[in-house]
From TrEMBL, chain A:
Organism expressing this protein natively: Petrotoga sibirica
Protein name: Pyruvate ferredoxin oxidoreductase alpha subunit
InterPro entries: PFOR_II, Pyruvate:ferred/Flavod_OxRd, Pyrv_Fd/Flavodoxin_OxRdtase_N, THDP-binding, Transketo_C/PFOR_II
Organism phylogeny: Bacteria, Thermotogati, Thermotogota, Thermotogae, Petrotogales
SUPFAM superfamilies in the record: Thiamin diphosphate-binding fold (THDP-binding), TK C-terminal domain-like
Record GO terms (molecular function): oxidoreductase activity, acting on the aldehyde or oxo group of donors
């Protein structure tokens, strides 16, 4: 029987990992990710799991070690945030190109500098072109559920890509909330066992991983990574369906909230979606036809789904918790470009919010909604919520 | 059991080499000897080597897709992380054995890296992996510079040797700093087996390799392995040059085992360091300088002092390991 647990988001993720019981986990602390690896080290220490834990000396080595481990055929995980992800980044690309199904919760935090330990999505956006699948999660339940689904997806033979499960620093990782935890046995059966086709430990059939890949093949290999992303996109609905069967929770690329008859739609990721849903409810009560779209899958980017849901609306505002200096904010630019081909384009507005953990209040969300309701949007203008100018 | 020559010859006649033909290292390069002998030592002892390598000459020249010279499982990850990569593989091995997912207990992990990937950018990962006590043999092929990128200085480049980022010029006589003593740095982790070796002494290397393979924990062998191209020496002279390095105290052969030091080759007479320096084209600009003799004298005093110190360490540590477990 599933049980209700009231714990931090970090504990929820650690429980998902405990139930998956990977062969190897690499651990290195960085706020606000630290409690995940601490919980996990506790599970190992108490003999609750029999994972081999590698308490590495840096995130660069964490990612390097998980590459060595996953290439050896072991189911492998690690977790990080912000500067840790930045230090890993060189190897993050390598992990994807070796097609290793590594799972990594990323507890989103502002990227230095200046140093700041609070939530924004600059870390995840830095890695958005690395070839990893990226999920974004609103709360404990989603962080838990997507960690389990990530394992299932990553190891599909036609996918074989690493996955980041993003959750908001402190807000989700340290906030205490209830979530429903599945039975250990149910999770174990759902993820099954991992038997890779190629392993570094298969001495009978020696394989060379990570060769020098010059101009005569590199391009083709990158083309294959793209193919794997396309396959991930195709496999995801099946993973969602299978997960619904064991949990009763129905997921999709986009979480749609009161959008059916909405003329005006806000797009926002992760925990801020909760605040936005509250504001949508308020505005609905006031008679405004507003709704919310929350992408849960960011890479592969659900372009078609965005087109379907946004085509023909009057106005759309996109909220980004990261900047892309000198260019449009990352989520906004993708949503905007996906609308290039729809029959009836909505007017669009770009809003940056919450950098470095800046509190995002219902009033700020409302401010963005008011712009769209009043037709006061300029597609080429980046606006800021809660910024002192 | 130490493999003897007959066993090894017999082995070579009937088995595949771990590192085989088709690589594109320069003719005369000493790096492939290291890869060959290390995998041979492991295989002839009945082990199944799993290899990781850092970016560098050995790696880029041996795995040009779709070809590979490696006849054993091999992984290259990046320049600075071979020790971390092998940590992960070794941890996976322990986990999968423990869970009964594999049953091959013959695997031994061997990491290869150049001096740049070891003394400099890879030092942190190496230190971390040794401190954590992973069971692997790390083999440094020390050619005293970043050769793959075209002869830049490394933490191993000796003073006065010409390199492109510390060239011997009109006002500065090349690299000013001495080489780091990497084996001492590794020995500083205490719970480790660490040794020097040289391509002139394959048998000494084989014996050390055997100790390293049977050592339950991290072990490290630093092999002086000339880059014939940038040392500006004849293609067929690598081992001859490392022989001279041993005979001039430039590269003493010794080992460290859990606190106990042992000098593994004690030449009866020594040659002056000048003989070694004069042999290497990389020093020719230095030798033309007016202050060449002063620099050589400094170097002579240094290698003498290091040798004396090594003998003293051997004496005081005799039968006195500082650790009995990792
Ligand atoms: C992070 C990073 N910095 C720099 C390089 C470029 N690079 C590749 S190999 C190399 C030098 C390797 O030198 P060494 O480890 O001594 O091996 P050798 O080439 O001498 O065999 C450098 C600088 C790299 N690949 N990665
Ligand atoms: S450049 Fe030097 S180290 Fe590199 S392959 Fe040639 S001889 Fe060997």
């Amino acid at each position: 029987m599933p049980v209700k647990l009231t714990v931090t988001g970090a504990a929820a993720v650690a429980h998902a990992m405990r139930q998956i019981n990977p062969d190897v986990v690499a651990a290195y602390p960085i706020t606000p990710q630290t409690p995940i690896v601490e919980y996990y080290a506790g599970f190992v220490s108490d003999g609750i799991v029999d994972t081999v834990l590698i308490p590495v000396e840096s995130e660069h080595s964490a990612m390097s070690a998980v590459v060595g481990s996953a290439a050896s055929g072991a189911r492998t995980m690690t977790a990080t945030a912000a500067n840790g992800l930045a230090l890993m980044l060189e190897i993050v690309y390598i992990a994807a190109s070796y097609r290793l199904p590594i799972i990594m919760p990323v507890v989103n935090r502002a990227l230095s500098g200046p140093i700041n330990i609070h939530c924004d999505h600059s870390d995840a956006m830095m890695a958005r072109d690395s070839g990893w699948i990226q999920f974004f999660t609103e709360n404990h339940q989603e962080a838990y559920d997507f960690t389990i689904m990530a394992t299932k997806l990553a190891e599909k033979e036609n996918v074989l890509l690493p996955v980041m499960v993003n959750l908001d620093g402190f807000i989700t990782s340290h906030g205490v909330e209830s979530f429903e935890m599945l039975d250990d046995g149910v999770v174990r059966e759902f993820v099954g066992s991992w038997n890779p086709k190629y392993s570094l430990l298969d001495t009978k059939n020696p394989v060379t991983f990570g060769p020098l890949d010059l101009f005569d093949y590199y391009f083709e290999h990158h083309r294959q990574q793209e193919e794997a992303m396309t396959n991930a996109y195709k496999e995801l609905p099946r993973v969602f369906e299978e997960f619904e069967k064991i949990s009763g929770r129905k997921y999709d690329f986009l979480d749609l909230y009161k959008v059916d008859d909405a003329d005006y739609i806000m797009v926002v990721m992760n925990s801020t979606a909760s605040t936005a849903k509250y504001v949508v409810d308020q505005l609905r009560e006031e008679g405004h036809k507003v709704g919310l779209v929350k992408p849960q899958v960011f890479t592969p980017f659900p372009k078609k789904e965005f087109q379907q849901v946004l085509n023909g609306r009057k106005g759309v505002v996109v909220l980004d918790r990261a900047m892309s200096f000198g260019k449009e904010a990352p989520l906004y630019s993708l949503v905007k470009s996906s609308l290039y081909e729809v029959a009836s384009r909505p007017s669009l507005g770009s809003y940056v919010y919450g950098l470095g953990g800046r509190d995002t209040t219902p009033e700020m969300i409302r401010e963005a909604f008011e712009d769209v309701l009043q037709g006061n949007l300029i597609a080429d203008e980046q606006r800021y919520l809660g910024l002192r100018e | 059991m130490v493999p003897n020559i007959r066993d090894i010859v017999g082995y070579v006649e009937t088995h595949d080499w771990g590192f085989t033909q088709g690589h594109r290292l320069c003719p005369g390069c000493n790096a492939p000897m290291v890869a060959n002998w290390a995998t041979l030592a492991a295989k002839s002892m009945g082990y199944e080597p799993v290899v990781a390598a850092a970016t560098g000459c050995l790696e880029v020249s041996s795995t040009i897709y779709p070809f590979t010279s490696w006849n054993v499982p091999y992984i290259h990850n990046a320049f600075e992380n071979v020790a971390a990569t092998i940590s992960g593989a070794e941890a996976a091995y322990r986990s999968l054995l423990n869970r009964g997912k594999i049953d091959n207990d013959k695997i031994k992990f061997i990491a290869f890296a150049g001096d740049g990937g070891t003394y400099d950018i890879g030092l942190q990962a190496l230190s971390g992996a040794i401190e954590r006590g992973h069971d692997f043999v790390y083999i440094l092929y020390d050619n005293e510079g970043y050769m793959n990128t075209g002869n830049q200085r490394s933490g191993s480049t000796p003073p006065g040797a010409d390199s492109t980022t510390a060239p011997v010029g009109k006002s500065i006589p090349g690299k000013l700093q001495l080489k780091k003593s990497i084996v001492d740095i590794v020995a500083g982790h205490e719970g480790v087996y660490a040794a020097t070796a040289a391509t002139a002494e394959p048998w000494d290397f084989m014996r050390k390799m055997q100790t390293a393979l049977e050592f339950k924990g991290p072990s490290f062998i630093a092999m002086l392995a000339p880059c014939v191209r940038f040392w500006r020496i004849p293609d067929d002279s690598g081992p001859e040059v490392t022989k001279l390095a041993i005979e001039t105290k430039y590269w003493p052969l010794w080992e460290y085992n859990m606190g106990v030091y042992k000098v593994t080759k004690k030449p009866k007479t020594f040659k002056p360091i000048k003989d070694y320096v004069a042999k290497l084209g990389r020093y020719s600009k230095l030798m033309k300088r007016q202050d060449a003799n002063e620099i050589l004298e400094e170097l002579q005093n240094y290698v003498d002092a290091k040798w004396d110190r090594l003998l003293a360490l051997e004496e005081i540590s005799k039968d006195k390991p500082i650790r009995t477990k990792i």
